[in-house]
Write a structure and sequence with these properties.
single chain; about 475 residues; alpha/beta; Amidase signature (AS) enzymes; eleven-stranded mixed sheet; 11 strands; about 15% strand; globular; binds glutamine
Length: about 475
């Protein structure tokens, strides 16, 4: 088997048996990237020199020893560019490692490349990248999803064994679904965000993109846990996420939310997800209907809270401290204005303006405060549902990957791509997307994702439930012809 086709677990067997070296693993990726990334455009940059230096001394007995990992361009890796795919951060080099990177490195992993994304993680298609769009490896006339589209595409195209991304409203799960890989959004507080460029601080989480559920568990083992440098990271014990993977589904109850099986979903997606639910039943799970009555407000609430927080977080990009600086300015105000005018793309500007508006005096109560109240209702919906079920099962995305350019002029339509993923971020719960079938569109196979949502800090159970399904299907084994 081609080396790049391996999962992390498969690669580790080879590394530990000394059948291959970490350097050979990196070289195989380098070759694969050279042959396909021109068509996928998943990477913004790679640093094989630095990676080779780590690979030379890699200790393969460590939990991720010698395993190369691709990193979304929103997470700081010391000495590497970190631009959030934005012109305003062009040329910015990270002065330190994010906590997740420090943890990966001490577990022996090798961060080697920066993956493309929607600028500052705002978007659902990676078309908002200030550098270039990423293309879906299953059909390069289509988007890979977003905002972590680069991470999803490089894992799907076997240009990486695994990648890290970030998820504020669906940015790990939705691209994982559209590219046919596994994407996990951990519970709020599970993973340190120290060194993650903030978009919406009450929603952002870092998480893994992998080829298998087991690999997601392996990465979670390393990156989870309390970090004194991020006060929002919590001290809940970190279990061995691989320990339960092979348990069965006896006694497991899965909830199908009435509000997620609605008209307007692509019929092939609806069918694949219903088939997956039946499959779960045949594997011994009990299926019950649940209701999440405030679902219809999730997108509206998200676009108030996320933009409000973004407008505050992005104020630091003023041309004084980081990246791009406008030249020939008249005075300080002109300096701020021109730098931001030149540096930010249209979607980022739209969000800053929206966020500033909902926080302004006179509108704060009507929008922001009210959104916070509805957010509580959405969280309560989940708390109530989880009194009855172990996890919730639903589609990740209402449709398969759409065409490049199809939504670019219609932000509202683009926002609806996250209709099934956003509520999990608002509620702080964990969620995973796993491959559950293919749609056939214009003679092409397009991946479909199944979303499982779990209780806060219940990643171990979520991974088990996902793993049982994965092991009895072969959707995850299929590879795009790229
Ligand atoms: N697509 C959503 C947005 O545009 C979510 C992005 C994300 O999760 N980072 O905000």
């Amino acid at each position: 088997m081609e080396l790049t086709l391996f999962s992390i677990s498969g690669l580790q067997e080879k590394l530990r048996a000394k059948e291959i070296s970490p350097i050979e693993a990196l070289q195989a990726l380098e070759q694969r990237i050279a042959s396909v990334d021109e068509r996928v455009q998943g990477y913004l940059s790679r640093d094989f020199e630095a990676a080779m230096a780590l690979a030379k001394n890699a200790d393969v007995s460590l939990p991720l020893g010698g395993v190369p990992i691709a990193i979304k361009d929103v997470i700081n890796v010391q000495g590497e560019p970190c631009t959030c795919a934005s012109k305003i951060l062009r040329g910015y080099i990270a002065p330190y490692d994010a906590t997740v990177i420090a943890r990966l490195k001490s577990a022996g992993a090798i961060p080697f490349g920066r993956t493309n994304m929607d600028e500052f993680a705002m978007g659902s298609s990676t078309e908002n990248s200030g550098v270039k769009p990423t293309l879906n490896p299953w059909d390069t006339t289509r988007i890979p999803g977003g905002s972590s589209g680069g991470s999803a595409a490089v894992v799907a195209a076997d240009e990486a064994f695994a990648a890290l991304g970030s998820d504020t409203g669906g940015s790990i799960r939705q691209p994982a679904a559209l590219c046919g890989c596994v994407g996990l959004k951990p519970s709020y507080g599970r993973i340190s965000r120290f060194g993650l460029v903030a978009f919406a601080s009450s929603l952002d989480q870092i998480g893994p993109f992998t080829k298998t559920v087991r690999d997601a568990a392996l990465l979670m083992n390393v990156i989870s846990g309390r970090d004194p440098q991020d006060s929002t990271s919590l001290g809940e014990p970190v279990p061995d996420y691989t320990a339960k993977l092979n348990d069965d589904l006896k006694g497991v109850k899965l909830g199908m939310p009435r509000e997620y099986f609605i008209e307007g979903i692509d019929p092939q997606v609806d069918q694949a997800v219903r088939d997956a639910v039946k499959h779960y039943e045949s594997l011994g799970a009990e299926i019950v209907e649940v209701s999440l009555p405030h679902t219809e407000h999730a997108v509206g609430v998200y676009y108030i809270i996320a933009t409000a927080e973004a407008s505050a977080n992005l104020a630091r990009f003023d041309g004084v401290r980081y990246g791009h600086r406008a030249s020939g300015v008249k005075d300080l105000l002109d300096h701020y204005g021109r730098t931001r005018e030149e540096g930010f793309g249209p979607e980022v500007k739209r969000r800053i303006i929206l966020g500033t508006y909902v926080l302004s005096s006179g509108y704060y109560d009507a929008y922001y405060l009210r959104a916070q109240k509805v957010r509580t209702l959405i969280r309560d919906d989940f708390t109530r549902a989880f009194e009855n079920v172990d996890a919730i099962v639903c589609p990740t995305s209402p449709e398969p990957a759409f065409k490049i350019g199809e939504r670019s002029d219609d932000p509202l339509k683009m926002y609806l791509a996250d209709i099934f993923t956003i509520a999990a971020n608002l509620a702080g719960i964990c969620g995973i997307s796993i491959p559950c079938g293919f749609a056939s569109v214009d003679g092409k196979k397009l991946p479909i994702g199944l979303q499982l949502l779990g209780k806060p800090f219940d990643e171990a159970n979520l991974l088990k439930i996902a793993h049982v399904y994965e092991q009895s299907t072969d959707w995850h084994k299929q590879r795009p012809e790229i």
